[in-house]
Amino acid sequence: MTDKHSFPCSALADKQISIYTDGACSGNPGPGGYGIVMICGQHRKELSGGFANTTNNRMELFSVICALRAVKSTEAAITVYSDSRYVVDMYNHGHAQRWKRHGWTRNKGKNPALNADLWDELLTLGARLSARFVWVRGHAEHKENERCDQLAVEARMKSDLPEDQGYTTPKTPDQPEQLPLFAML
User: Fold this and answer.
1) Could you tell me the pTM of the whole model?
2) Among 15, 35, 145, 150, which lies 20 to 30 A Cα-Cα from 161?
């Protein structure tokens, strides 16, 4: 038995999962939503949700995280399509991995990396599932991207949205404890 957010694809022969994601925010910060379309063979699943006070970048990231959380097969070939250069480029070019290695800082330690809580989870999920990220132009009549945008906008307009705790009280993910140089002797 699977929950309403899971997307089991392991029984399908091709095991190719295409994930389309989008985030939306009314004001930045403001009420935000995310939309997801997942396709595997003839199977299709749409997910959406939102938060009362968040940012567009957090919704773009959360949409991908929510989609990857729903995938139960670690053997599937997953391609994530997003119109967010922030998500696709930071992931594909290793910037987020570098921020993590440097204690969630950027610019040689001068500035904190934003959305470290979400980036940490996305890096973990992306590695576990061997996800590939592809940028698509937003609002360019791409059927699945347009549907994700519609889902995200509808979700951000709901009146009973929860708070985005990661935005209102940001935390940096814990770093592994560094052993002193001679502690291992």
Assistant:
1) 0.86
2) 145
